[in-house]
Amino acid sequence: MKKTFKNVALLTALSLVAVSCQKEDVLPIIGTEQTADSIYVVYSINGEVYHATLSESEWDAFMERMLALARDGYEVTFSKNRTSLTSQSKEKVTFVTNSKEEAYSWSSAMIDQGYTVSITYNQSTGEYTCIAIK
């Protein structure tokens, strides 16, 4: 038993030494560099507000993620404006669909027009409710 314990302890110590000698890779932080093509997004998931800077290629993945979160029962709200997610004027447009693709297209078009979009998904009816406020 003593011999096994010593062998395990020695092996553990050697493993720690070997791991600590390896060079650490530094990964770039995505979304921090702003360029002319970057998109600044303010979004909330169940009321918790976040900010992100996305490239055009990352925008599609962002929209897919928002629709997936809505389908999982979260209320998502997002805007390309640098202002908050609430608006004073309250011009409101509502769109209801069973199609994820239609919800994606409509929401993206409304965002491009300067609206803030909220999306919820009704599990029982299978409908996306998209509300755009300007």
What do you see in this structure?
The chain has 134 residues and is of the alpha+beta class. 36% of the residues lie in helices and 28% in strands. The protein has helices at 2-20, 56-71, 100-112, and strands spanning 39-45, 48-54, 76-79, 92-97, 116-122, 127-133. It is globular and about 65 Å long.
Summarize the structure.
By secondary structure, the protein is α+β, with helices and mostly antiparallel strands. It has three helices and six strands.
Biggest sheet overview: 6 strands, antiparallel
**Rg over CA atoms:** 23 Å
Termini separation comes to 73 Å
Shape: globular
Strand and helix order: HEEHEEHEE
Strand order of the largest sheet: 2-1-3-5-6-4
**Strand content range:** 25-35%
Number of helices: 3
Layout of strands and helices, then pairs:
Elements lengths: L1 H19 L18 E7 L2 E7 L1 H16 L4 E4 L12 E6 L2 H13 L3 E7 L4 E7 L1
Antiparallel strand pairs: 1-2, 1-3, 3-5, 4-6, 5-6
Short descriptors:
134 residues; alpha+beta; six-stranded antiparallel sheet; globular
